[in-house]
Amino acid sequence: MEAHNAQRSYQVVIAATRDMGIGMDMKLPWDLPNEYQFFQHITTRTCDPRKRNATIMGRKSWEATPLEFRPLPGRLNVVLTRSYCHSIPTDVDNVLVCGSMESALELLAKPPYSFSIEKVFFIGGGELLRHYLNAPSCDAIHLTEVDISVPCDTFSPRVDTCLCRPWYSSLPVVENGIRYCFNTYVRRKDLISGSDVEAEKYSFLPKMVFERHEEFGYLNLVQQIISHGDMNDNNTLLSKFGCQRLIFFYPVVLQKVFWVGVVEEILQLISGSTYPKVKPKLTLLIETNIILCSSFGVKATEEDGDHPLLTGLYWRHSDASQEFDQISDVINKIKNNPHDRGITLSACKLSLSPCQTFAQFYVANGELSCQIYQSSTEASLGIPFSIAAYSLLTCIIAHVCDVVAGDFIHLIGDAHVNTSHTKAIQKQLQISPKPFPETN
Ligand SMILES: NC(=O)c1ccc[n+]([C@@H]2O[C@H](COP(=O)([O-])OP(=O)(O)OC[C@H]3O[C@@H](n4cnc5c(N)ncnc54)[C@H](OP(=O)(O)O)[C@@H]3O)[C@@H](O)[C@H]2O)c1
């Protein structure tokens, strides 16, 4: 994609504070060795061992790099300056001086660099980021969000989220008492004229980032079930037990989820509907799954119609007297005692345990996260449906409690697939994930 055009495209790698501060007195305003190691890995590693990457930087960023680290080893260092500068060596093979970003990108698009340079990273500083962070040639932005507010004299503009979509966001890391997250945004390809289906592929991302897309957690689980699952006695189900920590902020993107059905199910559960009201919805959900099955070219079976009939009833009337309302209790605790360690919704009864067994909520930094334990679920249709449903439930409760939705963590006991679905699942596993949908 990058190599033979008139100009190379590039990816930005920077770290910034809450206010987008990136530097102070020609230094980074923090000391985060692991963050620096991430920068080293992402900018140095290549898929082809015969190639190296290029790092483009402004002259001041070059000078701000400690002497022992410059030129950055293992990479072609491209330094931008409008004037001759003594601090930049011109007699070493891994340093190039260019008079503008455009001339640098043109040079890198021509031999020998078009063959020897795998990826181009633009690494700052602030003067150049003002023009090139949200520019059309920028394919992706790897932004470490450092959760501090400290004095800075150099700033980056914010990522324009109308132009970019999130690809990956890490859980927070704490180092030297500072909390930070790694985030990757990819440029929306539909904004580039002449873009086609090919352009929707995101393999230009560094492998270590590409594979961190949250959907791989789900895809790897489904792969594990069809490759190494336990077969039941009549050869109709493959299953695995104890599938942990699928972490999602967004619904699965590789597959259609029947959103109306998701909304109806959650509204119905919240309402605590009893049997007569449930029945038509249940029929709808069974029909939905049959439609989804046929859209994947497989025949639906009885398990596809499985539905947590009693979950909503237990949520709203859960104790012996049938009076205790767990949903109100959850909302009350989040509003009045958000650090309560037992903000839970249980659908368990001694005699019967519905498959959506248990949910726990957790509030930190104004974010509401939800972890559920599902005792049993069908993996190809049920997991995406549950992710969408419980993400929606988390958003609804967060809205009511005036906090924002955080992570959704999915723990599964028995995850299984129908053997008649495996062909369709294998087809799905061939497709690479896409950026997550945008939220307005
Ligand atoms: N947190 C991070 O991720 C990060 C990353 C990088 C840097 N930083 C910090 O940012 C600060 C440095 O950034 P800065 O904004 O002061 O400077 P900068 O953007 O790194 O460099 C500015 C210099 O680049 C050259 N330049 C600018 N625009 C150009 C253009 N269009 N064509 C050719 N050359 C051009 C000029 O060099 P001449 O004057 O020689 O013509 C200009 O003085 C430091 O504090 C550094 O530690 C932080």
Automatic annotation (TrEMBL):
SUPFAM superfamilies for this protein: Dihydrofolate reductase-like, Thymidylate synthase/dCMP hydroxymethylase
DHFR domain: from which residue to which, for each copy? 9-187
Keywords attached to this entry: Methyltransferase, NADP, One-carbon metabolism, Oxidoreductase, Transferase
Q: Which BP terms in the Gene Ontology apply to this protein?
A: dTMP biosynthetic process; methylation; one-carbon metabolic process; tetrahydrofolate biosynthetic process
Gene Ontology cellular component annotations, sorted alphabetically: cytosol; mitochondrion
Pfam family name, one: DHFR_1
Highest taxon in the source lineage: Eukaryota
For this UniProt entry, the molecular function terms from Gene Ontology, in alphabetical order, are: dihydrofolate reductase activity; thymidylate synthase activity
Question: Which InterPro entries has this protein been placed in?
Answer: DHFR-like_dom_sf (IPR024072), DHFR_CS (IPR017925), DHFR_dom (IPR001796), Thymidate_synth/dCMP_Mease (IPR045097), Thymidate_synth/dCMP_Mease_dom (IPR023451), Thymidate_synth/dCMP_Mease_sf (IPR036926), Thymidylate_synthase (IPR000398)
NCBIfam families of this UniProt entry?
A: thym_sym
Query: What role does this protein play?
Result: Bifunctional enzyme. Involved in de novo dTMP biosynthesis. Key enzyme in folate metabolism. Can play two different roles depending on the source of dihydrofolate: de novo synthesis of tetrahydrofolate or recycling of the dihydrofolate released as one of the end products of the TS catalyzed reaction. Catalyzes an essential reaction for de novo glycine and purine synthesis, DNA precursor synthesis, and for the conversion of dUMP to dTMP.
Matches recorded under PANTHER family:
BIFUNCTIONAL DIHYDROFOLATE REDUCTASE-THYMIDYLATE SYNTHASE, THYMIDYLATE SYNTHASE 1
Q: What is this protein called?
A: DHFR domain-containing protein
